[in-house]
Each structure stands twice: as structure tokens, then as C-alpha cells.
Amino acid sequence: MNLTLKVWRQKNAQAAGAFVDYAMSDVSPDMSFLEMLDGLNETLQAKGQEPVAFDHDCREGICGTCSLVINGIPHGPDRATTTCQLHMRKFKAGDVITIEPWRAAPFAVIRDLVVDRGAFERIQRRGGFVSVGTGHAPDANAMAIPKRQADLAMDAAQCIGCGACVAACKNASAMLFVGAKVSQYAHLPQGQPERFRRVLAMVEQHDAEGFGACTNYQECEAVCPKEISVRVIGEMNRDYLRAVLVGVE
Amino acid sequence: MEGDVVSVQPAGVAKVVARLTQSSLGLKALVAVTGLGLVAFAFVHMAGHLQMFALLGGQEGYNQYAHKLQSLGALKWAARAGLLALTLVHVIATLKLIARNRSARPIGYASNHWLTASVASQTMRVTGPILLFFIIYHLLHFTALVVSAQGYEAMEYMLRDGSNLVVGDAYGRMVQAFRDPLLTVVYVLAVGLLGVHLAHGISSLFQTLGLTNSTYRPALATAGPLLAGLLTAGFAVVPLAILTGVIQ
Amino acid sequence: MTLTLQAKIPSGPLQGKWDKHKFECKLVNPANKRKFNIIVVGTGLAGASAAASLAELGYNVRAFCFQDSARRAHSIAAQGGINAAKNYQNDGDSVYRLFYDTIKGGDYRSREANVYRLAQVSVNIIDQCVAQGVPFAREYGGTLANRSFGGAQVSRTFYARGQTGQQLLLGAYSALSRQIGLGTVAMHERHEMLDLVLVDGHARGIVTRDLVSGAIDAWAADAVVLATGGYGNVFFLSTNAQGCNVTATWRAHKKGALFANPCYTQIHPTCIPRSGDHQSKLTLMSESLRNDGRVWVPKDASDTGKKPADIAEADRDYYLERMYPSFGNLVPRDIASRAAKRMCDDGKGVGPGGLGVYLDFGDAVKRLGTEIVGERYGNLFEMYQRITDDSPYQTPMRIYPAVHYTMGGLWVDYNLMSNVQGLHVIGEANFSDHGANRLGASALMQGLADGYFVLPYTVGQYLATSNQKKLTGSESEFTTAVAATKARIGQLLAIGGKRSPSSFHKELGLLLWDKCGMGRNAAGLQQALAKIPSIREEFWGNCNVLGDGDSYNVALEKAGRVADFLEFGELMCKDALERNESCGGHFREEFQSEGGEAQRDDDNYTHVSAWQYTGDPATAVLIKEPLIFEEVHPSTRSYK
Lengths: 249, 248, 640
Fold this sequence. Notes:
Chain A is an alpha+beta fold. Chain A is built from eight helices and seven strands, in the order ββαβββββααααααα.
């Protein structure tokens, strides 16, 4: 099939960007979206033009590297699917596809469709861990954890840190990302000693990075490739308010 | 499994206040708590108006109720100050959040596509200011009696509770106001917008205050629009009953 | 110059070697630890766990990864689980049994002492991960759940849904993040290591390129740890992530580190076949599918064009059940892969190009019902459908083997140090624990064992005894390396030819898959060895690397990696040609039994083949480290 791509091109963080139209021909429905872009890049290079930069790595929907807002939807039209797992059979001949980078103040464009998600790293470093050094651990079965709690923790832990939640949120809020981490540990006994400290520090960093606030649009849940529920945001809100009102340093 | 073993280093009240008034979650909580207060008031207010119906009070009952509220003295002013404070905090915290949210996405998308966000959630920033203007208008209309209130001052009523007190005829004023189709339309539209605002607002405040879990979340998601609908219906039924002559 | 390899395996009984060695390792005084700088390259399971553990001990750590986050390393893709000899199921597992299974699974081409240590520390790994908040699957009683995996006869595999690799990596990453927050680890994302710097024969630093700004920098340290993963992407199509590459280990090899057993590559039997020339990677479907799925091809090659539903039961050849009646569809990975290849070579393959076999859940659905099959495999079926548009509930899956893991890697001694003093190599990047074939759910175990529980001890031993002077990174060795790296980048950008870097990668990959893939023979390997230098020559004359070196440049990154694959591929074929036997993942077609089974040559090949760089892969020098089996005696694997 033949398609028209409107791709955001931007030389670097300082340069101004613009959409460039590319006509694609002979796109196979069995191609993944990124393989279609590989094809575009081969064509561009053959013409002496620099390839379109986009983030990608595992191409099996788990590493969280790939991004792209496709026709206004982060990771494109397929639910619970990363861009790398999106296939061209979801499009039809003649479609015009607009491809944009994640847009948020803390996610500066590095080049074309590649953005800097370092803000997530800094949030993680403020409390996304249990402070247990190597070798300090008791026997793994020393503490029984109810299956329900383990499952709730696992639901939250599935977050791949791709940033689609931020990209989809009208406020560019990263609360689903922060909530997922906070919720994972809040459901496990191992996370209790640092529970309040964690949520206060991670939310503080979230705000300092310049992300917006959650207004419960729930768009984040809708685009999340791992279908993380906004339940985690509610849990984080509760923990945060408890920590604030209790007066934790 | 709640955080009972969490070690606590006291932070000081200043820190608590700072977190509530500066952090995104603190501000959200303020909007939610004040919203909750305003919703509670709105329900009481709505229930009061239902006394306009003959079965629940009629002219005598409604005017007695209005008089009781007016004679609360200092308590009345405290309540008014409280409502004003709730509204101010609700609005200011929201404005702070809007400013934060705007700066979080300086460059927008060329192509936008909403997947699940409700109309109510998308229009909070529109319904909110309109409601604020409506409330100001409403206060000037029925409380200060300075707008659309020709002849209101002169409308009086003698209570038949034995006191024989002559009070302002709140009942009569309502009836006069809503015999005017234009005013009725304005009020019904306004309480309709209130319903839209609260359809998102009520379920949202439970989420914001963390008063949900996987068991109650679906129920709360339905409860919000349901309660908002009830409130709108309760408010709208009185003007409509007057316009159609059910209340005379 | 001849090099003799010192594996430094401690003396004494197998069971006591590691404890004895830990006691004999020199310790670094706690107050002195902060004076030592350690570089860790790569932040997968091995790198992240090592960086975090070393920092916890008090060392100054500097970690590098080419991804935009340490959490994205390809360890994340492991689905099945992690083995540990906990014996929580009371089903007869033990450290010794895990050791034995791993040695046998590796086809008797690994070191006993290393494998025994791996089995020993496996139990600590689970403890550590649980303490970090890794949400392993649990029973209703709250204890950890286990399953049997990859044909093991005991249930020793711990798992977290189908995302064990991700959850374990997030555990290690959380420990690493904590140390970064504490300032004990300096983390450099989007940095690629392009050279190793030796001073006085010791590994003392690296040269990196900042992938965003293009800056070339030198970093000095007291020890260097490579945790840069495997080289499976040399085949172009593999289950590896797009960014996986051999550059760091190949650069170290060119600076003197020996490359061991490069021909040992693991082919995973259950991957989604390629659908066309556009294909960029192969997607693995968990091995667990073979628990309920039945593998078959049409008996008659003329039926391969028919729809599977139109092929009668009697006309189907359930070849694994026929050839291996006792293990059936659950034979180890190498055996299942080769059998599929044999069927396709006989013209019985199905789908485009005849490269695929059916994995059929029809019987399972009949026996268990759609619901139970969905519970067990629903996620995988969805993933399959997303990629192929076919529903495995209704029609058999099509699968084909694909390159998955590489057992070979830089040679290391018992301390995980290469022959280059101070250069430590951990995880998939080293060669040490899996022999010629890796068992399922053992890669995660090895990565974390190396990083959490082995390296932190052995690095101390090196630092306490090496007595090297302090360096700043501005010494001539560093400036020379930086200049050389810049010159090479300039060279790549100046080629100015016509073909893209990817086109060379694809050409090399197809050649290697054809000649050095699932089946290899001397004639094919010789052809490959003749062809690779000419591809390399064309690359340096006709590649077109657009853009500049001072900015984010995906073409330049790719070109650098392909250039290294073009050299490494030759060494891989050379090693495969030299090893005149079949063992594990290395199947030389000349060395097979009448029934088509691999035939080892224990008399001549019970050794590690470690290759020394001489300036040209063609003339690499082979150095052998004999493998001595004191506990188990090599026997022929049989799964009949």
C-alpha cells in the first residue's frame, strides 16, 4: 500500500523543527511500524538524506525505548501495544500518518523523534527502590506475601517507563509512572519502611522536573502499553496525603 | 499491610503547609477538599429549595426556613465566610495547577486524539469559570437583591408560626423570578453545567484524595455522574415547576 | 609470543572451592575502597547488579550504557524465569543437581568450578531479589511459586508473569538508582564504549562517545568491568535488541583480551518466522509453549502449500514425538531447533520460503478448553496475533528457530578477569558458565550471580594486589586512544560510498546464518571465510555514512557496530571451522550420528578455544584451556 508520512524533523534540541512529508510506496501489511520507518530511512540514505532518528531497541514491546505519537495517539491506534509491535495492517492505503515526538517540557527533543527521558531517571533515584544492600537479604520465603498483594504489586511493576502516559496526558503529567513505582512497593512488606519517604521524594522530583498535575483524564491508562491502571495514582495520592498530614520529614 | 512500621521524622507545620500549597498533589488535594465542601453545601442548598413544593413546605415552610437561616447571626456570616474561603481556595489552587499544566507542554501536538477522557473532564476549565460567574450573579440576584430583582424588597410575608413576624417573601421572589422563561433557562442551564462539572469533579475527588481502591473504584466512577445528576435535577425541578405552574 | 591461560581454579573439593577462594581473596580496607575507581560498561543484569554492589561496598563507580536508561538493557526481554536451587518444592533439587544439569546441558564444554559456584549462589539471588521488592509469582499461602522450565525434571524456576527478565533488571536497576542518588555511582546513559585503554599492560580506562553530543572522552579507573552482552546480532536477524553489539568486547579483544568459543551460539526453537525482506528482528515465543503445543510438518512435501486445517491427521508428521518418544516436544533447545531445520531442508517447511513448522494447540484446546489454554498462553497468543494476524486458538502457530544467545565471549578466569589484568568480564559477555549450550532460565541466573555475588569479591582481590599508580585520564595512553577513536569516526564518515550501513549488516548476517548458523560444515565455513573479508573491503570503500560526528547520528552508530561485526564474524567462522566436532549449539554436519545427533570429540576438543588477536582475524592465534572434569564424566546426551 501507499502512504503519506508527516514526520517531525529537528536537527537538535536548539534547532527549530518542522514536519516533512514523505511518500511511502509498497508498504507491506506484515511490516511493523518501525520496519516501515527502517524502509523510509533506507530510501532517504540512498538519496543522500540523513535518516529519521527515532528511539527503539528490543522491538518486542518490553524495553520501553520506542515512542512516537502516531496520528495523535502515543504508540498509535492499537491498544496495549508499543509502537514496535504496531503493524501496518492497522492502516489502509492512502492514509496520511502524522508522526510526532513525545511532547512535554521535561522531555526535550534530542533529534527528530528522539526525546530525553532523563527526568524519569531522576525521579527513580529519589525513591524507586528498597534500601537493601547486596547480601542483606533474609531467605526469600521468610516472609509470606498474600498472592493478592503480590499480584497488585506486579500489576504496577509492569511499567516499562516509556513515557506514553506523559505524552498522552493533556497536562503532561507523569503521575501514572510515579504512581506505578509507589504502588508496587506500597503493596509489598519490603516497601514499608521507606513508604512515606519514597512517595514524598518522588512526587517532589516529579514536580521539580516540570511535569503537570493529574486531572484524572485517564488518557494515560488508555495508551499505556502495559495497561497500568490509574488505581496506582489513587494509591499514590493517599500515601502522599498521609505522609504530608502526618508530617514526615 | 498499611504503613504502620513507617518511621517518622517530624517535619514541622510549615512543611505541611508548604507541601499542601506548593506541590502538585497538595494543590490537587486542596481543590478536591474544597470541592467536596462546596458539593456538600450544594446538596444542602438544593434540599432547602425543595421545600418550595407544597408537600415539603410551600410558602409558609419555605419562608420559615429562609428566616431561620437569616437569623443565625454570626453563624450566618461564618458560614458565608467559609463558603467564600472554599471558593477562593478552589479557584486559586486550580489556577496554580493550570499554570503548571500549561508550562508542562509548551509545544502541543499537530494531531490530537482523545481516547477516553469524558466530555466533563475535558470541559472543567470552561464549566468552572462559567459557574463562578453564575454564582456571583446568583448572589447579586437572590441575596443582595440588586440584579433582576425589581420589587423583591417590597415582597413581604407574615409567618404563621405564631410569631406573626413579617419577613421577606423568599418564596414569592422565587415564584416571580421563574415565571420569567429567560431567567428559568439561565438557571436551568447553569445547574446543568454544574452537573457536568461535578460529573467529573465528584468521582475525581475520591481519586485525588486517595479514597478509592480496586473494589470501590468502578462504583465511585458511576457515583460521580449519578450524584451530579441528582443535584442538577433537584436544582432544576423548582424553576421548572414554577414555570409550568406546578408551584404557584 | 605464547600465552598460557591460568584459569586460577582453587584447589580442593568442588563444594568448598568458592568458600575457600573467598577466604583467600585479599580484602581492600574499607577506608581505602573509596580511593578506587571502577568502570562498569553495560547495565543489564550483570552490569547493574555489579555497579550497585561495588558502590555499596564503597568503591567509586562509573557506569555506562548506550541506551537512554540503564533499565532498558536487553536482559529485560527474558520471559521464562530464573533458576535457583532452593528446593522449595521438595522435589529433589539441590545445588549439586543444578550444577549437574547445567554441565550436562552445556554438553560438557564448561568449567566445573564456575558452574558449581553459579549453582551455589543461585539461592542468594532469589533472596536478594525478593528483598528488593521483585514481585515474583506466589501461591495463595504467600510463598514463592515455581515451575519446571526447559525440560528440567525439577521445578526450580522462579518467575514474574512472562516478564521475569524485566522484573529482575528493574530490581538491579533500583539498587543502581539508589547508588546513583547517593552519589556513589556516576551514570552515563547514551554513551558507547569505543575503546579500552591499557597502561603498563593493565586495563585502566575506556574511551566513549556521547551519542547525543558526539563528544569523545577518556575515562580512567583502577579496574574495568565489561558487561556488554552477547554478539547474536552478528546474524542481523536475531531475538536480540537492535542495539546489541559486539563493539565493546571486540575492542577489548583487539587490545589483547582473548575471545573464547565464539562459535557457540544458541538457536531458540520457538520464534516467529520472518515474513519478508523488511524484517528487522525475530520475536521469541516462550519455550513454555512446547508444554502443550505439538510440533508438526506435513508428511508429504507437496502438502506444504495447503492450509493446515486441510491436512488430515494421518498426513501430519509430529516429528519430535516420533524421533524423541520420551521427551517428545520438550527436547532441549538445540535438538528442537536442528530437527526443525532438518524438516525444512527436506522441503517440508511451511509458510513463506518454506521456513517454518507448525506448533499446534488444537489438541490442547480440545483437551483443556479455550479458557485454560488462554490462561496459560493468552499473552503469547495475543503477541503472536499482533505480529502475524493469525489466532493460535484457531490455526496452528508457525515457528522457526532464531539466534537467541551466545555462549562464547571474552575469556575469563575463575575471578571473572580476562587475560588482560584488571579487565573483568561478566554476564553474557564472558564465556564461562554455559559451555556449548545454555539451559533455559539460566542466563538471568548467571548475570546476577556474576554481578551481585562473584565480582564484588574478586575485584577486591585484584585491587588489593595490583599496586598500580593512580591515573587521571590525561596520560599519553588515553590521548592516543582518543585520537585513534576520532580518526576511525572520521574514516567512517569519509567513506562516501553508496550503500547504507544496514545493507552490509544484512549481507553479513545472511551469510553467517547460511554458513555458520544452525548447521555448519567445513566447505560452507571456508566459503564464508573467503567472503567476509570482501564484504569488509566493500564496506570500507562503498558505505555511505551521512551526517557528522558531532551530533546524534544513528547512521554513524550503526556503521561503527557493523564494522566490528564484519571483523568478528570472521573469527566466529574460524572458530567453527577449527572445532571439528558437534557440541551443544555448535553443530558441524560432518560430525553426526546416523540418527542425526551431535557427536562430540572429547579426546580432541575438551577445551576452551581462546583466540588471540594478531591484527587480522584470519590469522588469530588459538590458545587452548583444557577442561578438566573431576566430578562428572562426559557422556552422550540422549533424549530418545
